[in-house]
Amino acid sequence: MKCQLCKSEAILRSPRLCETHFIEYFERKIGKFIDKYRLKNKKLLVTISGGKDSVVISYVLSKLKEKYNLSLEYFFIRLGIPYFTEKSEEIAKNVTDKIGYPLTIYDLKEKEGFVIPDIKYKPCSYCGMIRRYILNRYAYENEFDYIVMGHNLDDEVFFIFNNLFGKNIPQIQRTGPLTETIKEKKLIGRIKPLYYLTEEEILLYAKLNNLPYIGCACPNSIESTQKKFKSNTVFTREQKLNLVYSILEIKKYLPEEEIEIKFCEKCGYPTTSNVCKFCRTKEKTQKGELKQKRKR
Ligand code: FES
Ligand code: ZN
Ligand code: ZN
After folding, report:
1. pTM (global) more than 0.70
2. Ligand 1 binding pocket includes 88 (Cβ within 6 Å)
């Protein structure tokens, strides 16, 4: 199988490219994303979890920094999950050392007084909310333009199907490669530069560039629906791309969501209730109320 651009051996079937042309193609795609969503000269908060996606996007953005005049800060949240957090932190440090950047570490225990293992019931769903809250608050306080997320094309395909299967149309409205920053609402937008790239392409890019990443998933998410979905479905890269393009098109016809945003009585950050979920979780955890498994 030959590369579609030169006579060298191709390392991937779709797109059919050799090593050199694949790396060029991959980085060009991220560059195009920066152009398309006008991210030139922006201040970006890059969160590294230690997984392949965050490691790859951290690395590519550091390579494109000069060309697009990006201002980058790399951020790691120490969640306190035994072994997993230590291993992820080691990888985040390795990556930032490799690209010559400092790593900001946010220690959940030190700053907020609890760790994820204090939450015994569905810790992953709380963990996602906690990470989103911390990132948004840090990005707002430090005047970032956007938060960089590592979501890829396969994540997005799962998100779309999962919400279609659950008849959850308002969630579909929230999908997409970028959400806008609304400073008056203290909401910092999120960008997903890997949105148009598959997991296979990301893994290959990591391998070709000798990038370390954590091979195991969060110990609390072993049986996740997403994992099952990914291992049970076979879509081609074109089908996945066509699905997200179609959804982005359909979104234009969906009515804009009207959510009334209030500011949390305790922390002052956006919420839909009087006290935000983060503050409620923090309080319950400190009182030990999230330490027991719920009875089913
Ligand atoms: Fe954080 Fe599972 S507990 S992802
Ligand atoms: Zn080639
Ligand atoms: Zn709050």
Report:
1. yes
2. no
